[in-house]
Design a protein that fits this description.
By secondary structure, this protein is α+β, with helices and mostly antiparallel strands. Helices cover 27% and strands 28% of the residues. The chain is globular, with a radius of gyration of 18 Å.
């Protein structure tokens, strides 16, 4: 190993393996479910942008009304909670957990529009 500007240089194979093992990510089916849900909201004009973050302890899918704002909702996958409260949760812009559970589709239902009773 050599050192460049105080950082260690690793062979590409070794560096990729270590980074992949350290991060939580979405599986293909999970990402498909998230993107289908997201695209339905884009179609109605409610959401405009998203971001995906893969961290050491969780993967985060953030939804924005505008790209320059804070996320309206974040959908988090935390595998360490899979046997307890469930690995999925939906969090609003204020940091309030709206729903937590074991199944992604069940957790996403909290974001479905509910019909409102209107009196005339």
């Amino acid at each position: 190993m050599s050192s460049v500007s105080g950082s260690n240089v690793l062979p590409l194979k070794q560096a990729n393996k270590s980074k992949i093992l350290e991060r939580v990510s979405f599986h293909r089916r999970e990402l498909d479910t998230l993107l289908q849900f997201y695209s339905a909201r884009v179609g109605t004009g409610e959401w405009r942008d998203y971001a995906i973050d893969m961290l050491k302890d969780r993967a985060v899918f953030s939804v924005f009304k505008r790209a320059s704002e804070v996320p309206v909702y974040t959908i988090e996958k935390m595998p360490k909670l899979a046997k307890r409260q469930g690995q999925w949760c939906v969090i609003n812009a204020n940091g309030l957990i709206l729903k937590r559970g074991h199944e992604l589709k069940t957790v996403l239902r909290v974001l479905d529009k509910k019909p409102k009773l209107v009196s005339l």
